Amino acid sequence: MHLPRSVETADVAGKTVLVRSDLNVPLEDGRVADDTRIRASLPTIELLLERGATEVRICSHLGRPKTAEDRARYAIEPVRRAVADAVGDDRVRVLENTRFAAGETKNDPAFARELAAGCDVYVNDAFGSAHRAHSSTVGVAELLPAYAGLLLLDELRNLGRLLGEVERPFLIVAGGAKVDDKIAVLQNLGAKADEVLIGGKMAEDVRDESPFGFDIVLPTDVVAASSFAADAETRVTSFDELPGGWLGLDVGPETREDFARRVAAARTVFWNGPMGVFEWPAFAEGTFAVARAVAESDGFSVVGGGDSVRAVHEAGVADSISWISTGGGASLELLEGKDLPGVAAIPEC
Ligand code: 3PG
Ligand code: MG
Questions:
Q1: 186-190, 236-240, 274-278, 279-283: which range is least confident on average?
Q2: Which pLDDT tens digit goes with each residue over 272-331?
Q3: 14, 152, 248, 267: most buried, per Cβ within 10 A?
Q4: If you measure from the C-alpha of residue 26 to the centroid of ligand 2, how many angstroms do you get, rounded to a whole number?
Q5: Which atom of ligand 1 is nearest to the CA of 329?
Q6: Please, which residues have CB within 8 angstroms of residue 348's CB and are 6 or more apart in sequence?
């Protein structure tokens, strides 16, 4: 993969630098509920400060604001406070939510000119938004000398390792509910893998008719629930013989053992999508078993997608994963083999 030129090669001393980060973080009661993306964005900001930038002007979208009430709900203020607490340098400024400007998502050149005004250099570090062709991710790159931030480059290098030659066996674990979004990625990536394990809702969708041109490994047993509820009656049944009206909300103990054994034998592992409704303790064990197995792998392990990332944190094994991607849609589009517009807009090194 060709990499865009790095911020490390930019001369920023005495300059005003516009940085596009992905600070689209979950909020709860007016506070940042998970600051993973903020922490991941700090190295680039700190590098620019160390190298003598006069001003580091950060911009990001937050949520998908549409109505007037959304402007209060998605105001950038809590993020601005979290950044200020983390960096504590008055050369840093955080602009208001880019999506409050109607032009942003249309890649309107007028909004791009507004963002670029008074800036000398543009750094895109927003990997999580790199699949969006918006004013702040693409438009400004045409107006200012553009560079890639450290996080963006790390994401491309690490996820890129799954696109090039991989150490084998290469195993993919896929699950989750957004089945349609993931079929295309799996078709591209799964054909390269030695083994593809499928659990969760996706397993049920492909059980009777597989859309893939390769063999897949499906669960053999499931935790069946009498209804879609956290406190539903449960019983372990065979995957093929779910009683009428019951729902498979987790993979069963036999499947957990089988999946863990296969993961342990792999040299490269990519995991996206939970094995069940892990938000409910009665149906969490399958997803946590996969999280632990992926973490125990001494091969190269990559986890992408919001739910799986949350599961590795909840299972307490995040430190043992080789690469946890900050991008959901962006990582899937990259692995699908698509060009990311936010990356393509930056000159190569
Ligand atoms: C994300 O959270 O996936 C990114 O920040 C992109 O957000 P979007 O899907 O609203 O464009
Ligand atoms: Mg490991």
A1: 186-190
A2: 999 999 999 999 999 999 999 999 999 999 998 888 988 999 999 999 999 999 998 899
A3: 152
A4: 27
A5: 3
A6: 2, 3, 4, 5
**Closest to 176 measured CA to CA, from 197, 190, 148, 153:** 197
Tokens of 220: 């053999």
Q: Starting from the CA of residue 295, give the closest ligand.
A: 2
List residues with catalytic annotation. Answer: 37, 178, 306, 329
Identify any residues that bridge with 224 across adjacent strands, giving them in sequence order. Answer: 235, 248
Contact 49, 56 (CB under 8 A): yes
Q: Atom 2, ligand 1: which residue's CA is nearest? A: 24
In 34-120, DSSP assigns E strands to 55-59, 92-94
For residue 18, CA distances in Å to 12, 140, 172 come to: 11, 9, 38
Close Cβ partners of 94 (under 8 Å, ≥ 6 residues apart): 23, 58, 59, 60, 76, 79, 80, 83, 84
pTM of the model: 0.91
* AA identity, residue 142: E
Atom of ligand 1 nearest to the CA of 327: 3
Q: Give the binding-site residues of ligand 1, using a 6 Å CB cut-off.
A: 22, 24, 64, 128-129, 132, 328-329
